[in-house]
Amino acid sequence: MKLTIIGCSGSFPGPHSAASCYLVSHEHAGRTWRIALDLGSGALGPLQKHIALEDLDAVCLSHLHPDHYMDLTGLHIAVKWRPGGWPAERIPVYGPAGTDERIAVAHGIEPDPGMHSEFDFRTWTPGATAEIGPFRITPVIVRHPIEEPYALRIEVADDGAPGDGPGTRILAYSGDTDSCEGLIEAAQGADVFLCEAAYQDDRDEELEGIHLNGDRAGAAAAEAGVGRLLLTHIPAWTDAAVVREHAAKRYDGNIAVAAAGVTYQI
To answer: pTM to 2 decimals?
Structure first.
């Protein structure tokens, strides 16, 4: 399984990165399967540096803040108005209840029919696993001030078949969250923990129930026993070096700060 960072800037696009979007790919049944975890503000452009849009097998949304889903509006245009017609099936979009209505309103169109001609909207059920080709994706409710904020646990067996037995590779994506039991559940034993750390340690301590800082991200990684911590969703006004330093005080494993355009093997 490969993870490519399309956008990792927190809360809004930064000078060096779009907002949240992560491309996950894996070879299975004679082809490459590709899913996007979130499709935030500014992400659709850099995504096309890595794949043709018609090769996208699904979009999986963690929650419905604009920096995590707003570029669905651009993808809708690409599908609906492509000269000669869209050469693929409707794109499955997994997300919280009401995703179809929220994105239609954001785009200024009526929810009925909305974007249903372009997207196959599917609603997450907390704790219920969805299978997309080789990927098993389990949404887990976390702690963030919006309806249905999810962390996503993505599992792929080494042989390419869906499964969660021996040899399974696990990527955990925090979405947006503060410390909570759901975050540990989603990240438990993950090979790579893609974890937000939007708040800067020793600066944002009075802010609670919204985002993690380095200290809390590191503590979650240690408690969940992950193999590697990849810090992400860091806004332009947050010092990534400070966040990483504090995370390392709580988690003694491998730590890196996500960078747009970089691909990681899981």
So the answer is: 0.96
Superfamily of domain 2-258: Ribonuclease Z/Hydroxyacylglutathione hydrolase-like (3.60.15.10)
Number of neighbouring beta carbons within 10 Å of residue 124: 24
58-60 and 91-95: which strand pairing? parallel
What are the pLDDT digits (tens) for 159-192? Answer: 655 445 558 999 999 999 999 999 999 999 999 9
Of 179, 195, 174, give the one whose Cα is nearest residue 243: 195
**What is the Rg, in whole angstroms, of the alpha carbon atoms belonging to the chain?**
17
Please state the domain extents for the chain: 2-258
Strands 2-9 and 21-28: antiparallel
